[in-house]
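REQUEST ID: PR-0412
SUBMITTED BY: lab tech R.K.
PRIORITY: routine
TASK: structure prediction, single protein chain
INPUT:
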Amino acid sequence: MSPEAALAWIIAAPVAALLLTQAILALISRVRNHTYRSAEQASKPALEPEGPAPKPADPAHALFLEDHASAIALQNDVVNHLYGAGIMLCLSFAIAAWELAIGHASPGFRLGALSLDVAAIGFALISVVRSHRRRRKWMIYRARAELLRQWITTDRVFLPPEDEATAYRARRAEVAQEIPEGAGEIEEQVMAAWNARQALLASRIGALPSVPEEARQRYLQKRVLRQVRWFNDASSRIGAIGKRRGAWLLWFFVLAAISALIRFGGNLGQWAPAEAAEHPLTFTWLIAIAVSTLIISTYAAQNTRSLGHRYGTQKRAIARWRTLHEPAFAIIAKSQATRTPQEIAAAVVEFEELMGEELLDWLHITEADALEVSVV
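STATUS: complete
OUTPUT:
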């Protein structure tokens, strides 16, 4: 084999594997997005809030969506780096299994396989390191987005500024200072920022002469009911991911079992497969085992196990809050005794404390585990 041909094999094998990895990642992303949209659509009719239709998107909300999208982009980056590492290693294993089981590889194929082995290890190492580094930035951006979401759904609802876009940019600058990208414990920074905001909300809302009915309805709709819907979506999403993972594991387990039984029977002299089928059966068995291991290890690296339990706890806590306070925020409140601004402020702060606990728990779980493979 000429040096030019050897070099072509050395370069072509890793490049082809990298392109295939990117294609698989794109497919996984489409499946995740479909799961998210399906859960979102399924929960929408049951939780459609009463009252006036939501207003069209405003400049402040458009700015918030930009910050929200930045956090999602970092989440997807963390996920794709980890998935990419696993896929490249799996492709390298598949080529090695082909050589072992099928044999008859040309010198060029053999050289390309060896090149892919080295490239896969290097790619996996770089991907894991980059994912770890990007995870902190993702956590910071998600925490900032949740503090800004609080301003969008709470501060400006009860204390609307004259220029919402300018006020949002000012709040964005404050949040960036409260949770910087440098060193420091993210959880401590978030706790300090959230607690300070709760005290400010309590004093400002409590100092109002009265709380307009529209503000109470908008808070219920855009903060409380939206959060209930999100937790329902997330729980459905985690359930769908679990069912899909279980189905794939079962399919590959059956495939591996059939291959192993046929090969075992052949060695005993019964049900002996044709000689031409012996090596493909071995290859099928090796691939089924490898993919099953990848699925299991990917699940073990996710924080969906911890988050599923946490979401259930939060849903129950919100249900208790709604039992105690929702009548003061819903449309029917105008036919009942109106609560004082101080009582409304106390109810708002109580709910925001629940959301603060949820964010802190998410940070702790995500830092202790690895990732959440779902769109937020």
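NOTES: The two ends are 52 Å apart (CA to CA).
REVIEWED BY: pending
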